[in-house]
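Checklist before submission:
- one chain only
- standard amino acids only
- sequence pasted in full

Submission:
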Amino acid sequence: MKIFQAILLIPVLLSCAQKSKDLPVANTVIIPAEPSKFGVREDCYKDRQTIKIVGTSSAKVIKAGRFGILDCYELGDLYQPCMLPDWAVEGTEVKVSGVVKAVFENERRAGTPFLINEINKL
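Returned file contents:
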């Protein structure tokens, strides 16, 4: 029995001792810009690929402030825009359209990066 345990334990110890290269860190640059006519910042996700374009969809602000999240319940997605207008407090129902941007491989986010084209309160 001890030999069996040793046989299982040795590969585990060897794999833990091996050095692996760390994954590259995503260099997300937030580009300051003037607020657009909708009260949101311009493209702060400039270094990301466009995944899809979202037409006008209903959404709900589930977290407001610097890192606001839009629950686009019609599509079943969570989006993280660059910035939300001041009136978009938590619980506000909105109609939003915009561009979905890529999430980097080694990145974890509360929502998919989203560039707002238009946002209106319902």
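Reviewer check: The beta strands are 50-63, 69-72, 77-81, 93-101, 112-121.
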